[in-house]
Amino acid sequence: MKKFVAVCLSVLLLVGCGKTEPSAEEKLEHIKSSGDYPEVLIETAEKCPQTIDFVYAYPEKHGKRFDIDLTADARLDTVPLFIQWDERWGYEPYGSGYIGTSG
Fold this sequence. Notes:
By secondary structure, the protein is mostly helical. It has one domain.
């Protein structure tokens, strides 16, 4: 019986208990309805769907300090892609908004 219970618990953990990542539509709905996001970020997520993950992470990531080391991105044979809504700097204030929305 103990083995059966252990197997059942393992299956539940693998299949049913883990949280799944919300869809982009679900994230956008949460952003618009939760009250946790500045209006400028809500507008950015609505107008620019590729920023939804960045905006969705705002409550957890804004105010956090990141050690920014760009040496891995610096190569002589390529041009690195730096996106304004990168979490390392995108939540920093800039003008009347954030680098992620105004940079």
